[in-house]
């Protein structure tokens, strides 16, 4: 079973890129982020024609998350992160697919920091950690997949000082991610590639894609009930180099 996460950065603008990748990569489940489309603007017909069922939660212009499942309809279990009913941003969706719970996560960016946006990021992280703890207590096979907007360690960003003030690599951001993982989650890519510089995001600016000046922001965390099934993990890096590409590339795991 192949499960992927892909920040598509506008699903309608990048729909040809997404459909081409689905045809070649054939993932069984895909967590999408940054749809940048309202619920009614989601390209459900094109996704269905490609052979995928879908659940989604859209938001006009910003955010938006979805879960696609090949040859089956995902069963929606949650369409928002618990803990703050007044938070209406479309950043979390969760569904059951073939006996596994898959979450699509678009964690807040947090810039500029310090400030209210960074505070929101850390609060969202705390809420995610509480919910993730509940999932582990239930002993469920879960994948928390998505764009966490955190490069967890120095090996997850190209050698540079230009991002030093960015929320993506602040000590508090990294500590929040480490604390989440420490509760029993397996960072699948790092588990199988402990010392390799692997990136999932290359900013459009400053020629960063041609220079391979990337960051690893997209992660797949496996619950203790699922981690023993981890067989492979990687990034479809070439997708980032296509015409009209998202600034992210799909990251994926294969489960036994």
Which features characterize this protein?
6-stranded mixed beta sheet, 256 residues
Percent helix, as a range, is: 10-25%
**Based on helices, strands and strand pairing, what is the structural class?**
alpha+beta
The N- to C-terminal Cα distance equals: 7 Å
How many distinct helices?
5
Task: Provide mean pLDDT, rounded.
Answer: 98
Low-confidence stretches: none
Order of helices and strands: EHEHEEEEEHEHEHEEE
What Rg is obtained from the alpha carbons, in whole angstroms?
17 Å
Main pleated-sheet profile: 6 strands, mixed
Number of strands: 12
Strand content: 25-35%
Q: Order of strands across the widest beta sheet?
A: 3-4-2-1-12-11
The shape, in one word, is: globular
Describe the overall structure:
This protein has helices at 15-25, 44-49, 116-137, 171-182, 188-192; strands spanning 2-7, 29-33, 52-57, 65-70, 75-78, 92-97, 100-106, 142-147, 186-187, 218-222, 230-235, 251-255. By secondary structure, it is α+β, with helices and mostly antiparallel strands. A 6-stranded mixed β-sheet has the order 3-4-2-1-12-11. Strand 3 and strand 4 form a beta hairpin. Helix 3 (116-137) packs parallel to helix 4. The longest helix is centred in the middle third of the chain and has 22 residues, at 116-137. The relative contact order is 0.17.
SSE blueprint and pairings:
Blueprint: E1 2-7, H1 15-25, E2 29-33, H2 44-49, E3 52-57, E4 65-70, E5 75-78, E6 92-97, E7 100-106, H3 116-137, E8 142-147, H4 171-182, E9 186-187, H5 188-192, E10 218-222, E11 230-235, E12 251-255
Helix pairs in contact: 3-4
């Amino acid at each position: 079973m192949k499960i992927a996460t892909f920040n598509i950065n506008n699903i309608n603008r990048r729909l040809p890129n997404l459909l081409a990748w689905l045809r070649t990569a054939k993932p069984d489940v895909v967590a999408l982020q940054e749809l940048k489309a309202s619920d009614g603007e989601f390209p459900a017909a094109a996704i269905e024609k490609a052979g995928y069922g879908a659940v989604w939660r859209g938001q006009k212009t910003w955010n938006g998350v979805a879960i696609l499942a090949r040859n089956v309809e995902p069963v929606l279990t949650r369409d928002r992160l618990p803990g703050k009913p007044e938070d209406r941003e479309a950043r979390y969706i969760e569904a059951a697919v073939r006996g596994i719970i898959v979450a699509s996560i678009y964690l807040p960016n947090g810039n500029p920091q310090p400030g209210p946006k960074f505070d929101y990021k850390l609060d969202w992280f705390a809420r995610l950690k509480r919910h993730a703890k509940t999932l582990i207590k239930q002993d469920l096979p879960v994948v928390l997949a998505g764009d966490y907007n955190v490069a967890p360690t120095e090996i997850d960003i190209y050698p540079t000082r230009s991002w030093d003030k960015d929320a993506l690599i602040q000590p508090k951001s990294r500590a929040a991610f480490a604390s989440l993982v420490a509760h029993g989650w397996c960072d699948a890519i790092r588990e199988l590639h402990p010392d390799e510089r692997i990136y999932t995001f290359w900013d459009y600016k400053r020629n960063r894609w041609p220079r391979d000046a990337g960051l690893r922001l997209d992660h797949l965390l496996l619950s203790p009930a699922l981690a023993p099934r981890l067989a492979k993990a990687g990034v479809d890096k070439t997708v980032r180099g296509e015409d009209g590409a998202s600034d992210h590339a799909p990251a994926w795991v294969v489960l036994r």
